[in-house]
Amino acid sequence: MALLAGDIGGTKTVLALMDNAQNARHPLQETRFPSDEYESLEAIIAQFLADIRVPVTVASFGVAGPVVNGRVEVTNLPWIIDAAAISQTFGIPQVFLLNDLEAIANAVPHLEADDLHTLNAGQREEGGAIAIIAPGTGLGEAFLTWSDNLNRYQAHPSEGGHAAFGPGNDEQIDLLRYLHGRFQHVSYERVCSGIGIPNLYDFMRADGRYAEPAWLATAVAAAEDPTPVIVNAAVRQNIPLCTAVVHLFVDILGDEAGNLALKTLATGGVYIGGGIPPRILPQLEHPRFLAAFRRKGRFADLMESIPIHVIRNPKAALFGAAHYGLETSRDHSPL
Q: Does residue 314 have a pLDDT over 50?
């Protein structure tokens, strides 16, 4: 009897097999697949299970895309994943699909000290709501609330990253004006994510305060994804233009993390996931991040008390999908 867990994204798909009684950190088998080399998730599952003789009774997948009625169109892949179809194809009695941020949220209660980097220790309230914000390629947001009936936290998905960007100072007002002509709707994702960083770069370059070295202009223009080029030029090479971009990113992330904490009353803490934050930890430790997070008027004292952690473990979504599958299947099992 085993559980099949998966972290499904546009670039990679990670599948892991684990015993129902086993900690999700120690799978019996784990394999990473390049997603775009396969025509469907079913093709990957078939390859993964080909040599496995353990019967799989539960499958749980965190997927980059909105899940509706057990079905999801994967963001950045021409895949449609249907839980019922997977169940029938592979004879797996229980198959669960959840949004990738919901998967990360399910991992949060099980994370350990080594998985986290603390930006603000704060004063955690037992059973308080927990907020998760994750700038990766896009900007994901989710939250957790405590369930007395289940005696554990329950995760709730959100599309808060697509809410309208609210500038917090004059520079950000200028940024909104700059981007408003380009996009019909300027969301937080447009300014606080992997796809948003090039927008910040364009704005800073057009502002004229910082010179753009010729080699950098060439590298950014040639890159299929310019975000790593911009971030590396800031973090490793201290290029003023790119440093200003990262500082603006940090300000906006701090502000929106604070917004999410207020909206969910996240007295249980704020957890920052995604691929970008672990790469810019020194910049997040700069006082500007906490200043932006706490700049909430009459609620500044509350904001100062909220714990803030960066999730450093890149397998959080996989762990979360596994825990969701284990816990939900147990909830649904007969007494």
A: yes
The string of DSSP letters for 97-150 reads EEEHHHHHHHHGGG--GGGEEEEE---PPTT--EEEEEESSSEEEEEEEEETTT
Tell me the CATH number at 145: 3.40.367.20
Q: Cβ neighbours of residue 186 under 8 Å, at least 6 residues apart? A: 164, 165, 176, 179, 180
Residues 20 and 40 in one domain: yes
User: Beta-carbon neighbour count of residue 121 at 10 Å?
Assistant: 11
Q: Which pLDDT tens digit goes with each residue over 47-96?
A: 999 988 888 999 999 998 889 999 999 877 899 999 999 999 999 999 99
Residue 47, domain CATH: 3.30.420.40
Residues 193, 87 within the same domain: no
For residue 334, the model assigns a pLDDT of: 46
At 99, give phi and psi (nearest 5°).
Answer: -55, 150
Q: What is the pLDDT of residues 256-292, one digit of tens each?
A: 999 999 999 999 999 999 999 999 999 999 999 999 9
281 and 159 share a domain? yes
Q: Which residue has the tokens 């329950």?
A: 154
CA atoms within 13 A on the CB side of 123: 5
Same domain for 321 and 295? no
Nearest partner of 202 among 192, 188, 212, 194, judged by Cα: 212
User: Using a CB cutoff of 8 Å and minimum separation of 24, what contacts does 44-49 make?
Assistant: 44/13, 44/15, 45/4, 45/15, 45/86, 45/90, 46/90, 48/4, 48/15, 48/17, 49/4, 49/90
Domain that includes residue 286, residue range: 112-311
Task: Looking at the structure, tell me whether residues 238 and 287 fall in a common domain.
Answer: yes
